[in-house]
Amino acid sequence: MVQLDNMPNKQVMTVDVEDYFHVSAFENNIDKSDWASLELRVESNVYRLLELFEQFNAKGTFFTLGWVAERCPNLIKAIVEQGHELASHGYAHQRVSHMDRAQFKQDVELSKQLLEDASGQVVTGYRAPSFSINDDNTWAYDVLLELGFEYSSSTYPIEHDLYGVPKWPRFCYTRPEGIIEIPIPTVRKNDKNIGIGGGGYFRLYPYWLSKKRIDNFLKTEQQPYSFYFHPWEIDPHQPRIEGATIKSKLRHYLNLSKMEAKVVNLLKDYQWDTMRNVYLAKK
Fold first, then answer.
1. How far apart are the C-alpha atoms of 16 and 89, rounded to whole Å?
2. Is the separation of the CB atoms in 152 and 125 below 8 Å?
């Protein structure tokens, strides 16, 4: 277990609970009307993660699609029964940048209702699919506040071809609208933000390099580190999507067979808790 001087005692583990066919990279290849007919793998993958988290006494925040909660209510119950935090990832993995205000409210309100009905708990956290809150849709925070959310983790302050708000704050802060925003972690290099929060970056680099960057972040910034990933990332045998671009396939399928072992290394090397416990307990 790593413990650096002055480093926060606990870091934040987050899981974006969606299946392989929900991802934005394949939205032009798979119609939403076909989702129900595709092989559902998210349930077994999340149960595997719950086993791993229990083994290493780790707690986390599960940003879950309402679509998943609707079809797997027992999975939602298992998440909260094991002491994890349940949060919203919207209903249908639709990017905020592709919705107007009314559509966004309908999507998030439905997800919140389904998650709360399945869990019996109030849901107060939200993460936008593909980190899709940006300068053009800050009205989303007003909607979140209206619906009873307390915090969001919907921004990644990096330059990226699909998302990113590099000029936005790098650390947890309270928005003018009253919502707490918790950005995905970055390190600074050559006056540029470099993403270290998970996803494809984590699968691409060897674990020792990711760990070095995390330790540097903890030592330099003295802020909690938060990590995100998806259940499909530990599933190398998932169906392959035909017709997707080479870039999308590379990003999605890269090093899937190595991911579970890397997650285990993280669970061994750091202490993990929920977003609410680490960030909101101080507010």
1. 7
2. yes
Could you tell me how many residues make up the chain? 283
What are 184's two structure tokens? Answer: 């995905």
Strand 272-273 versus strand 11-17 pairing type: parallel
**Tokens of residue 96, six digits:** 């905020």
Residue by residue, DSSP assigns 217-229 as: HHHHH-S--EEEE
Task: Find tokens 């989702």 and name the residue.
Answer: 35
Kindly report, residue by residue over 11-69, the tens digit of the pLDDT. 999 999 999 999 988 989 999 999 999 999 999 999 999 999 999 999 999 999 999 99
Predicted confidence (pLDDT) per residue in 224-283, tens digit: 999 999 999 999 999 999 888 998 998 899 999 999 999 999 999 999 999 999 999 865
pTM score: 0.95
Mean pLDDT, rounded, for 97-106: 97
Measure CA of the first residue to CA of the last residue in the chain; give whole Å: 27
Instruction: For the chain, list the domains and their CATH numbers.
Output: 11-282 (3.20.20.370)
What is the C-alpha to C-alpha distance for residues 133 and 213, in angstroms, rounded to an integer? Answer: 26
Half-sphere exposure in the Cβ direction for 71 (13 Å, CA): 19
CA distance 208 to 199: 16
User: Taking a C-beta distance cutoff of 8 angstroms, is the pair 38, 265 a contact?
Assistant: no
